[in-house]
Amino acid sequence: MNDSANQSAKPPVMPSWWQRLASGLKRTSASIGGAIADIVTKRKLDAATVEELEEVLIRADLGVATAGKIAAAVAEGRYDKSVTTDEVKQILAAEVEKIMAPVAQPLVIDANVRPFVILVVGVNGSGKTTTIGKLAARFRAEGRNIMLAAGDTFRAAAIEQLKVWGQRTGSPVIASTQGADSAALAFQALEAARAQGADVLIVDTAGRLQNKAALMGELEKITRVMKKLDAGAPHAVLLVLDATVGQNALSQVEVFARIAGVTGLVMTKLDGTARGGILVAIAAKHRIPVHFIGVGESVEDLSPFAAKDFAAAIAGLGA
Prior knowledge:
This protein is α/β, with parallel strands linked by helices and 319 residues long.
């Protein structure tokens, strides 16, 4: 076989996480960057320009308080001077990083707790079950034994989807039929995880926000029955958020933090929206740790959250 044939047989090079992140946040950074360029290239910085900048950032879902803070940082010492788009982007990145750095915390699996129980909550359609599959793949790659529990017994599709991820990742799945008692299933899954020596048990849950009282009762019951076997369970409660819903994600954080005791966030679908700034607004308001973000469909597109990289990507800067 000749050299050219050898070269053509090489597998394609996977893009780095930074490349995937920058590409995933392209819609957000392009919408912010384009608007900034339109504003600052026209004239010197004055009160009207600063106000326009603030409006751009509010439209990008960064939140009113954050938008005001960033606009004020741009204005500081620069009135009646020309500023470049890059200068504004640098300030934007620096301010976003300041807000995100305190919440950029890894999900720590305590090796002394077996099984380490992760309860995953979120509204239907947020990417909850897919996120569980991706987390299972990540933990399996780290050498951990994983078990999954199909606790979203409200939707048959969620049960089937989790079984597929179980096969894909080599993780046993405890499941029942649609309409089964999710708390009983969680109890059964924790018993099985203990008996089989699993390192991590990930429990899916239903996400029917239309009936908050029923959802609250269900989540409380799941937690209550697991505590009969392990007083510390669940050891982490992850809320999966869909970035494409924008401001609606803020109210979801409020509801689930109140009813489920959320300990960390996973934000998905950042590649499908120009509203990636919503994660900044959530961090500024709720200060809940952000463990992972997702910028695509593949397993590699879910990665631990890094404030500096996220800030640079949202501002459209290089790594």
